[in-house]
Design a protein that fits this description.
Layout lengths: L2 H29 L4 H20 L4 H22 L6 H24 L3 H22 L2 H20 L4 H24 L1 H4 L2
Amino acid sequence: MNSSSHGARDADHARDLITDIDQWSRQGRRLSSPAWFPLLVVSVAVFAALPFALLLGGNAAGYWAVVAPLSAVVTGWYFATRRVQLPFVRGTIVLVTGVVMLLVVAAFLLWFAGDSADFLPWIVIACGFGIFALVWRSVPTAFFAASTAVAIVVVALGGWGNVGVIMTLVVGVGAVAAAMVELAQADPGRAHA
């Protein structure tokens, strides 16, 4: 047997193995990305705000006082029951960010009202998901956070009425789009099926 052909086969086999390891590593990182679930929770909470605002007579504070803690509990359950956990430091940052988001919304709803209260949930979402994007290294989540922040500025400077409706559409659609991109990245085969 020719040792050079044997060596070439070994080199080809090693290259194939390294390619497989790289592919599995990329797929594992994508599958372990938890960003899709909080994005989906936000989209559901945001889209549900419109019908509840009609039912509650425009009382957005009452809606967010219930939905913010409920969203935090549902998202916390998701993170606690995942098979793939974030490393301790990153997980702690996500936990602290979520708790701060909840406390800021609760404090603001207790002490402030009026037009500035219309923007609070959106500011909290933009800032919180900006931090999440950094921790999860998620481009779709970063794009969602940035588009939410830009929408807040545009709506505030534009002085338009119906702040809640405009922001609901922008944030809700942005969250759904980012969640779908996250899911497509996690399983590219299903995205094309």
